[in-house]
Amino acid sequence: MVSAVSFPDSYRPPTATAEKRVNLRQDHVDAIHPFSHLILGNATEMMTIPTPCLSIALSFMFVSHLSAQEKRFLRFDDAGSTRYGLIDGELVRVLDGPPWENPAVSSRTLTLSQVKPLVPTEPQIVLAAAYNFRSHLGTRTQPSQPQFFLKTPQCLIASGTPVRLPASAANAHYEAELVIVIGQAIENGTLAEATQAIFGFTCGNDVSERTWQETDVQWWRAKSSRTFGPVGPVIVSGLEWKSLRIRGVHNGNVAQDESAADMLFSPAELVQFASRYVALQPGDLVFTGSPGNTEPLRNGDVFEVQIDGIGKLSNPVIQESQAETP
To answer: DSSP alpha helices (H): ranges in the chain?
Structure first.
């Protein structure tokens, strides 16, 4: 958080510019640094920072979110080619392959402002857990084992890409979630093997059309209509998942806010259970369930998933107006 930012005792801004200061809000930082949400997380408080210190402050804010073992990775478009990179302050160090393959770090670097983030992986399977928080159960009975449904890889979109609601989708809700990124193949694994198979975590929004969930035989369109799977923008490895807090912010208002430690089934338990029935591969994604109550998304809305230590996934919403044909 912003309050954690500090400068070295020996640092003093140049006297010629010491009185030049900026009032720094998130929207100001976004204009200066398009990837500020990767550095600031969900910081939205007004700050006053000496102008010569701005880039230094951003770097300090980034470092304050990470422990020594945590690493942040980004999948991005590089002149038509897909690359992975290791985020190092405001630089992206290009990797020679996916991060779970322990690739070499090339000598090539880019700045965050130069890269366009993509969906963090190219999964073969996307699983999503239902009813994994007591606060989301309502009147339902607590499940005795994980309850999964499938989302299709084609529904996934990157941060910043609009969620496009079909014209007939009148009750599509947001669902802020922590998402597991698989880093090792696992099939019928033990709990220890499931723990090892988890490479890291990212943010996800399991957009869900509630009416279709009730009326359709399966949740194919309720959960997997095109653009119903925002995910990203980064993968973070080395996180202690129990320390994470999942927030859903709807048009600037906090709508969901709960500790990941409140999950009924842990990430490792989810992966172990799933591996009994499907072979999970590196890059596959597992949504871990949404806390609390949800509300419908409307045309013009913006929904953000904010997870301290990972960052912010933000997507505008567009309601399609063209009537569907039978």
So the answer is: 26-32, 36-40, 54-64, 191-197, 210-215, 220-224, 267-275
Hey, what are 302's tokens?
């913006």
Contacts of 56 (CB under 8 A, 6+ apart): 7, 11
Q: Tell me how far apart the alpha carbons of residues 42 and 166 are, in angstroms, rounded to a whole number.
A: 30
- Check if the beta carbon of residue 96 is closer than 8 Å to that of residue 62: no
Q: In the prediction, which pLDDT does 34 show?
A: 43
Question: Measured between alpha carbons, how far is 255 from 277 in angstroms, rounded to an integer?
Answer: 34
Q: Which residues pair with 236 in a beta bridge?
A: 72, 201
CB–CB of 85/92 below 8 Å?
Answer: yes
**pLDDT tens track for 54-72:** 333 333 333 334 455 899 9
Is the distance from CB of 244 to CB of 309 less than 8 angstroms?
yes
Taking the C-alpha atoms of residue 150 and residue 163, their distance in angstroms, rounded to an integer, is: 19
CA pair distance 170, 55, nearest whole angstrom: 44
Q: For the whole model, what pTM was predicted?
A: 0.80
pLDDT digits (tens, 9 = 90+) for 296-318: 999 999 999 999 999 999 999 99
Instruction: Take residue 281 and report the two structure tokens written for it.
Output: 């591969």
216-221 long-range contacts (CB < 8 A, ≥24 apart) are 219/149, 220/152, 221/166
Low-confidence stretches of the chain (pLDDT < 70) are 1-68, 322-326
Kindly tell me the burial class for residue 80, based on how many C-beta atoms sit within 10 Å of its own C-beta (0-12, 13-18, 19 or more).
exposed
